[in-house]
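REVIEWER CHECKLIST
Item 1: Sequence provided? yes
Item 2: Single chain? yes
Item 3: Sequence as submitted:
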Amino acid sequence: MRIRVIASLLSAAGVALAGTVVAAPPVQAVGKVIAVSGDLVAHGSVTPGTSNPARQLVSGRVRVVEDDDLTTATVTLGAVPGPADQAYLRLNIGQFSATGSCDPTAEYTTRIYGSLDAGWSRSGATYTLDSNSEWLVDDYNCAFAAVAGDLTSSPPTYDVLGGTLNPEYAQPALQVASVELLGKPKLKLVPGVWTKIDVEVRNTGTGVAGQVVVRGKGKGLKVKAGTVPYEVYPDSTGTAKLTVKLTRKRTAKLAIAVSSGVAQAATAVKVKPGRAPARLRAGKYRSKNGNVTFQVKGGRMVGFRIYAQTTCGGYPEFPTHTMTWYDMPTTKVSRAGIVDAVDRGELYTATLSGRAKGSKVKARFTYGGPDRCRASESFVARRVG
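Item 4: Structure as written out by the authors:
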């Protein structure tokens, strides 16, 4: 690890921090810097300049979020101060100079006894800062706290504690939000039949999660990995399809692992065996209102068409609503009676999912495309000939 020497002077308001070694930030190749933070660990030349523990600095930590003009910190004294210990706590953030000193550009102050200044709170000997009172415009990489006799440029100084502010990089953090089969958490699979299940992944971190891969394994199971077909942004979700086959007629445990770079998550769910439904009969199918039509040939849905309400646009303008015809490519109905098809083009995605048995198909169609156009329609279609 590289080190950085705060050489000879860490100064603000006449306060000096001399001859101290502080860890520098590790090298980081990728990711957006969202904050800088660090511990205050290095005493200054006064080290400390008083025997009164209520005016001595024991520890500190500082975090700066420049985009929000937000500085947060905790600073702890050696003892709870009383009326006779009155002094000022002065917290500074700044930049290292060419000579290694920390040149401050923003300062936050408070009395250590009595009423505290805005942004500060206290619990015992620990002071907490949460303030956006300063306009933060610099690339901060150092900070120090001082206990001083006043707020002048050359105050009596009792103690100083400083350190390096290291960058915090935006990183994704993943969790498995849900595991479902056709929108339901119960996974009941027909043994010997490959079945797609939906694994919803949430990004709880601060960075974008790209190339999210979902894998699975388990005794009595065969599993094909899936990927989320788009980047998952912070505080949003993405869904990958995991293809699973139950190879026995007993309940199995499916272990699921999700990864995107160094971000990982895992969970486990039960997979139970189920009975195969009656095969979907060949013939023509139609919904009651005639908005859905298709044929079944050789266990496949052919010539699917649906007339659905389409909504386009939205805030800040009013959305528009029209009725539109959509179609889907030939879709296979699995032996488990499951319809699960995706038609993905360069600018649109359409899905068709549901269950089919005998002479009935109960499913849902969705569409998302250019100009924020979307459609979603549930239907029941029955054999009519």
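Item 5: Key structural point noted by reviewer: The first strand starts at residue 3 and ends at 6.
Item 6: Recommendation: ____
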